Amino acid sequence: MVKDKLIFNGNEKQVFSTDDPCQVIFRYKDVTTAFHGVKRARFAGKGALTSQISAILLGYLNDNGVETHFIRTLGDEREQLCRMIEIIPLEVVFHNRISGSLASKLGVEDGFKPSNTILDLCYNNDELGDPLINRDQAVALRLATYQELDGMYDIVRRSGQLLTDLLDRAGIELVDAKFEFGRAADTGAIIISDEISPDTCRMWDKETGERLDKDRFRLDLGDLVPSYGIVLEKLKTALDLE
Ligand code: C5P
Prior knowledge:
The chain is an alpha+beta fold.
């Protein structure tokens, strides 16, 4: 496998083509952004941590029957080999607790724990601020079919539960998680894409309630990289890695 051209240069990641048209290389950057790119900073070592955490979590989903774009890690710890996809510009956010923008929107205390889990469908569109969208609107914009949306919801419910249980074993509470999707270039199947890490999920220490995720940056709490390091170490211990 040969790394070829830069085909996407995002805020927090780069994507390179390879000599296989169905495979790409994801490179995680040290840059962090929040509030739709309004707040931005660089944290040395962040990209290596989010890449390693994402590789563990995406790999765990693959091993447990949920297809993702992740294939394997590469020599450089900021890079991973992934399946090429056609992007579906929708996000589904899974909430075990109500935190962040959802808490503000609903007027409840940040961290409120409902008796159900909540799934939100959002249109992945920076210019519009990734607004909430409903199924009919998503179909009207031809972003996905009703059948594909049903499949995505099913994937998110299964993945949310698998990750909640895994993180619980690691001493971490999964508060919420954002999932992105694509149609795999090799099979056409809808699979999870992008990353799953403390940059895209809220993760709280089960014992202390301490935030171990991007809220450390959003809320100016400091210690972002050490917190992500704790997540990685706890996951490695739970899964008996290294
Ligand atoms: O910002 P908000 O509170 O709506 O975020 C809900 C969850 O989705 C959080 O875990 C956040 O990290 C994630 N998210 C994301 N990318 C976005 C917006 C939210 O990963 N563009």
